[in-house]
Specification:
The chain is built from no helices and eleven strands. By secondary structure, it is an all-beta fold. Strands 2, 4, 5, 6, 9, 10 and 11 form a seven-stranded mixed beta sheet that branches. Strands 1-3-8-7 form a four-stranded antiparallel beta sheet, with no helix packed on it. It is globular and about 40 Å long.
Amino acid sequence: QVQLVESGGGLVQAGGSLRLSCAASGSISRINTMGWYRQVPGKQRELERELVATISTGGITNYADSVKGRFTISRDSAKKSVYLQMNSLRPEDTAVYYCNYRGPILSSWGQGTQVTVSS
């Protein structure tokens, strides 16, 4: 099992910034991909979560087109943590943000953290 604990969500005005953090613990593989997904209001199923950004243990990143140039994902392997720096936030970024871990065998989701961007 892999446990994920997120922090850093909140309420911010459009144009502002937030930084999300996710700490992983448990049976973490040396090779894995961690990232952030979000679920907008009205979409309840896990399958409806949309990719925001991911980063592999090799440092390869992948971003949704809607966040490129505004969000930056990073990780600290020693701390088994992943971060999402979100700048120039827009009202359409409002969602519950979920941390995700994917290893060769195990995958896991965090409990989610709410990000609300007011106009």
